[in-house]
What we know:
The chain is globular and about 50 Å long. A hairpin with a 2-residue loop joins strand 7 (160-171) and strand 8 (174-185). Strands 1, 2, 3, 4, 5, 6, 7 and 8 form an 8-stranded antiparallel beta sheet that branches. The chain has 5 helices and 8 strands. It is of the alpha+beta class.
Amino acid sequence: MSVSELTELQRDALGELFNLGVGRAAHSLSQMVRDEIELSAPIVNLVHPDAVATLLLGSEFSQLSMVSIDFSGPFDARSILLFPERNALAIVSHMLDPDMTPEELSEFEQEAMCEIGNIILNACISALADEFGVQFHGGLPVHHYSDSRSLPLSERIETQRILVLQINLTMRQERIQGHLLFLMSISSLQSLIDCVDAYLARHGMA
């Protein structure tokens, strides 16, 4: 198997592990907004950076509001949470005051999205750290505006791959699609796969 591919067992294991993190994030977000927030089990894909725009163009994405955090550890990754900008404003509206004007919401969007990204991305990486028995160090969340054709990816795309997780956030009967991206070098991806294989072996699933 190429390091650029995942077996079905590895993909399922990553889906389950990231789902642990997503569940923790949903609980934390629900406490923060004092209302129930549901995050769906993520759908995991491994793609070449060139294919990310095509994947996102197949959804409702055009103008994007995104938060990135760089993590280092047994493998390094640039993690990105992204939502369509209009949906990000809807999330921020639910978090703050639904009666706020669009101008007022825009003023708080970056700060609120950084908080949401910090919770979701750290929860996902923490779930991996706990289950793999390793430690990661994360930087501070950074907010970006972009579109699906100009994502803040590395210039060395030929030697990198991206784990793409599709999630749905449901808040007050409103369903909002988002994506998590984990940009990794080929060597970091191999280290992740090694961690997944060791996890599967410990649980008698290798």
